[in-house]
Design goal:
The chain has about 325 residues and is an alpha/beta fold. The chain is built from 13 helices and six strands. The longest helix has 20 residues.
Amino acid sequence: MIIQNNTNKQYIEFITRLCTYSPCICSNIMSLGKMLTNGTTHTNTSNHFPKRIILVRHGECLANADINVYGTTPNHKIELTQKGIEQAKQTGSLIKKLITSENAVESNNWKVFFYVSPAERTRRTLREMGQSFPKRKLMGVKEEYRLRELSFGNYHNPASIAKVKEERVKYGRFYYRVPGGETGAEVYDRISSFVECLRRDIEMKKFCDDTSQDTNIIIVTHGLSSRIFLMKWFEWTIEQFEDLNRMKTCEFQVLQLGQRGEYSLAFHHNDKKLREWGLSLDMIEDQKRRAYGPIVNSLELCDLYPYMDCFAEDSDEENTII
């Protein structure tokens, strides 16, 4: 389908106005504008993008079952429980079923690439999940240190861990510094670095062996790291992040690519599940817009972001020459 020139001009004008009001949301839409000026659609241009990015929280670990483990075992060496092992096997099977069920006619037309946090519990989760995926479907596996969990320092007794978690909720999980450990803001910095590298690799067609096949990136990580990944990817505010809830052990979140070239949680997760994860009604509507469109009025988009209420309303007087 070729977009006519007059439509191109109108769309570029719309994007220009949108940039004036809210530059933070323009990066994704600008790529669409470029494609329109080339006379192509998003579908033709973004076929080298992975079909899905899937975030997986590790299976139940020994510290999830018994908080005393934090006092005897280094955090990165904490292993899965038997229940966690079974969870990981089941999650691998569920993700494979999800990937293949949407390719019923061409069920072999897919591949996967894994990123995994270096913690023992995420490594083991990947190993158990991997039993569901044949080697011929594997594009690669990378251990990514930036995906590691928030550092809680070294050994801690249960009482101190409980106190830290209580204080962190009251203070705010993003800015609170765990004694001897990290803040959520520091986790955001390294997750942001990973996300930018991931986007660069996507643009460079690293995951594009064959444009006719569906590529799936699966990221095995931790509760906080996965929430901050979503915060960075969708450009959520700190206040929106604070309301998010972590996934259950070995639960997964699917970001799927839509026809308009944007990823969305709304393809695979209903409103109830998104609310369970802490998304507000506005955030859920934004996920649906990303998935199904249409592009809404620029000012309506701007309402999703802070500070817009402190600027003056548009009027003819602003163009008056004094």
